[in-house]
User: What shape does this take?
Amino acid sequence: MVTDTPGVGFSGPVTDAGWTTGRIASAFRELMNRLGYERYGVHGNGGGAWIAAEMGRQAPDEVVGVHVNGLITFPSGDPAEFDGLTPAEYERLARLQDFADDKMGFNAIQSTRPQTLAYGLHDSPIGQLAWIVEKFKEWTDAERALPQDAVDLLLANVSLYWFRGTAGSSANLYYEMSHDEAAKAPGPRGTVPTGVMVTSTTDVAIRRFAERDHNVMHWTEVQRGGNFLALEQPVALTEDIKAFFSTLA
Assistant: This one.
């Protein structure tokens, strides 16, 4: 089953406040319970990775395992964490720093003034297209050719935001999460078995940082691909998800 985050895509715009990571995770758990699933696995990408991990923290008795890609890991501030990092991991740290310095404009405005942005995106299809195309350009593997139907998939993605009117509510997710006091305090380490897939071209996840926060039992690195692995590397992603959950059966 594939779900959309509330306020994004087919879910339509949300009309009330408070859709934090914790609330979304709880809503997805309620959905699975109502559908009759007592035990299930979860996969998430990017922001969905945070939600998937939170579902595991909330209900380790329900969630058999969590698989993620596009995971972001942050140093804790302890200098000892950097001892023995590989050149590839230092490259990922540099990539994370570059992202923070030069590519966080979307996050800054959506975390502080999402409604102001929403008026422009709702009013202009060109604006909505440019807003999303930039992310596809920066977050995909520039050296790997996208599938021939990538343009159609991109236009379908943009059309969902435009016709469903979710520019505002999808932007508001950033505001909710950046103002969520419960999320600012360090949370407990996740205990649910976790699988992580990373790429050498765009990812920033470092295994020891991930293991600090999650019960990582499966780690796969691939050379090519970007943040949108379901589009860029669908076979590799699917096979890795299957391989991870097969170990938990």
